[in-house]
Specification:
The protein is an alpha+beta fold and 336 residues long. 39% of the residues are buried.
Length: 336
């Protein structure tokens, strides 16, 4: 039964509430009404409260392309005078997967955590201009996010002149585990955790980004939705074997991906070499995992602790993997 108390009575007096439509066609409808999300102005202390389903296009300036992917383009820009990242999701060959990717990006939009890239605003409406590239035609939506940093973890691992020190690896891994803890506590799984999807801020803090493969665990009970989700995939080198078999996602799938990413931090090597199909088959059928015989794991400590933790992250049985909370506890106990 709906509460008789107006929603505005539950919010601060300075909270300017309005409603903007930004509802996924893949979500269920309540009767004949479209699901709506509360929105607010971006400026001032309201910026950390809720994401907005309305983009104030006139406040979006100085767009500069900084990247592209399978589902769209990424820009650096200013929004209400603040530097932001803007993701323009377009319709790729697989139209359903493109739409799913856009809506999946918003699975964590309501969350606020220092180790997650924050969503500021998103809209399915078009600004009617070509400043964001390919306006109108095939554009599914636009997402404005905090500009978390200039470098991702992939660049920090492979482009640096010197390898990361073990203590830096543990610190970055701890940041990722904290982000996963917050996601999993709110029943969201990332499903595409890898170095390229972790932003390193100028302060050296890692933030999980790119939620285009993410999933709210409540959706798993819908078998058809779960099957469609598998079409989006993820990065095969970091994808848990149960997902490769088409099974339902659990938080353990993120822990598996965390393990591969942590291994890359420690070794500066790619996880596997060889043809994709051969690797996929070996991971599922023969428990192929990244090599734990590297020099870094041969040291009594912390090498032994690294090796033991990674082995459990990669267990073939998701229930045997540590939780994100256990990862945090064990990382804090690794000797220097």
């Amino acid at each position: 039964m709906p509460s008789p108390i107006p929603v505005t009575r539950l919010l601060p007096r300075d909270f300017g509430l309005n409603l903007g439509v930004c509802s996924s066609p893949l979500t269920k409808q309540l009767g004949h009404a479209t699901l709506r999300v509360p929105v607010n102005a971006f400026h001032g202390k309201l910026a950390c409260r809720l994401w907005s389903s309305v983009i104030h296009w006139r406040e979006l300036d100085d767009l500069e392309p900084i990247g592209s992917g399978g589902f769209g383009l990424v820009f650096r820009a200013t929004y209400f005078g603040e530097t932001v990242a803007v993701k323009r999701v377009k319709c790729a060959k697989n139209k359903l997967a493109s739409r799913q990717s856009f809506w999946a990006e918003l699975n964590a939009a309501h969350l606020r955590h220092e180790n997650l890239v924050r969503v500021i605003a998103a809209s399915t409406q078009d600004n009617g201009e070509d400043s964001l590239g390919a306006s109108g035609d095939g554009v599914i939506g636009t997402i404005i996010m905090e500009y978390a940093g200039d470098v991702n973890l992939q660049q920090a691992i492979y482009s640096a002149a010197e390898p990361l020190r073990p203590e830096s690896c543990v610190r970055y891994a701890t940041d990722m585990a904290r982000g996963l803890c917050h996601l999993h506590a709110h029943r969201v799984v990332h499903l595409d955790l890898k170095p390229a999807n972790v932003i390193v801020s100028r302060a050296g803090v890692c933030k999980l980004a790119d939620f285009g493969c993410s999933l709210k665990l409540e959706v798993v009970c819908d078998r058809d939705a779960s099957a469609r989700r598998m079409e989006i995939g993820g990065t095969y080198t970091h994808r848990a074997p149960e997902l490769l078999r088409g099974e339902d996602a659990t938080p353990g799938a993120d822990v598996y991906s965390f393990g591969v990413t942590f291994w890359q931090l420690l070794t500066r090597d790619p996880p596997y070499e060889g043809e994709r199909q051969h690797i996929l088959y070996a991971v599922v059928a023969f428990n192929l995992r990244p090599d734990l015989n590297k020099h870094v794991f041969s040291q009594p400590e912390p090498g032994r602790s690294f090796k033991e933790l990674l082995s459990r992250c990669w267990s073939a049985e998701p229930s045997q993997r540590p939780s994100a909370e256990q990862l945090l506890a064990e990382l804090s106990e690794i000797p220097p």
